[in-house]
Amino acid sequence: MHQKSVTVDKLLSGSLLVIAPHMDDEVVGCGGLMLLHEDKRRLHCIYASDGKKSPTALLPWQNETDSDLAQIRKCESREALAEIGVSPENSTLLNLPDGGLSRARGELERRLENEISRIDPNFILVPFRYDLHSDHVAVHRTIRNLKRSGRIRGTVLEYFIYFRWRLIKGRDIRLRIPKGNLLHVDISSVSAAKRNALSRYRSQTSILYAWQETPILTEERVQQRCREPECFLVADPAEPLLSCFSSSKYWFLFAHYVERLGKRRKDQVLAFFKWALRPSARQTG
C-alpha cells in the first residue's frame, strides 16, 4: 500500500496488529488508535519480551525486585487490553528476555513471522526505527527484514515512545520528519479511556521500591501521552532507514547512538551521587 493511501479511516477499519517490545508500549504509543477502532475483534497485540526488567535498579546493590514481576506485568497487560476491548485470545506473549531482544533476533524473527502469518493483518504497528531502547530497535529491524524479504504482508507503520531527544533542536524527533510522512490521530474523544488503560500498568505508574524516586511512567508523561494526538510514520521498508529525515541525516544517526547508549549511563551516575550524598551516607557513626 502506498504511503499516501494510508488514512486514519483505513486504520480504524482494517485489521491491526500492534507489536509491543514491552507491556505498556502498546497503550502509550497506540492506545488511542486502538480505542477508536471500529471493530475490536480485528485488533491484535504481540508482546515480544517478558517485561521482567522494568523497573530495575540503576545501582547494582539496590537489587530489590519482585521475582514475580514478569507475571505481574502479564496480568497488567490483560487488564489494559480489556479496558480497550481487546480479548485475551487476540494477545500473544513471546516471553523473550527483556533487554535482550537484539541478542535473540533469530528467535524473535522466527516467532514473529509465524504469528503475523497466522493473523495476516492489514496494518502492523512497530516502534520507530530510531527509538532510544535497544528492544524497540530490535523489533523494528526484525519486522523490516521480514517485510523486505516478502515473508509477511501488511502495511508497516511506526509509533513513537521515546521521542524526546536532548541533542536535537526542539528536542522532539518527530519534528525532524517531514509532516507529509506522518499520520496524526486525534484521540481527544478517548483520552480518559486511554488514561484508564495506562492506569492498569501499576508497576509502571507507581513507585514499587524504596530506591525509586519516580515511577517509570510519571504523571506528567501519562497526561502528555493521553492529551496529544498519536503520531505514526508510514514506513517503506524498501527505502534506507535514514530516508525518514529530510536533512541532517547523519547528525540524527550520531545523536541516536549517543542518546541511546548515554541515557542509562547518565542516569546511573546521577543515581550514584544521590545515593552517596544521602544523609545516612554522610553519617560517621
First-last Cα distance: 70 Å
Number of strands: 7
Gyration radius, to the nearest Å?
19 Å
CATH topology: Rossmann fold
Shape descriptor reads globular
Give start-end ranges of low-pLDDT stretches.
none
* Overall residue-averaged pLDDT value: 91
> Which structural class do the helices and strands define?
alpha/beta
In the CATH hierarchy, what is the architecture at level 2? 3-Layer(aba) Sandwich
CATH homologous superfamily label: LmbE-like
Order of helices and strands: HEHEHEHEHEEHHHEHH
Report a brief summary of the structure.
This protein has one domain (3-236): LmbE-like (Rossmann fold).
Please characterize this protein's 3D structure.
This protein has a single domain (3-236), classed as LmbE-like (Rossmann fold), CATH 3.40.50.10320. A seven-stranded mixed sheet has the order 3-2-1-4-5-7-6, with helices on both faces. It is of the alpha/beta class. Helix 2 packs antiparallel against helix 6 and helix 4 packs across helix 5 (134-148). The protein starts with 7 loop residues before the first helix and ends with a helix. It has helices at residues 8-13, 25-36, 69-84, 105-119, 134-148, 191-199, 202-205, 219-227, 249-276, 279-282, and strands at 16-20, 43-49, 91-96, 123-127, 155-159, 182-185, 230-234. The protein contains ten helices and seven strands.
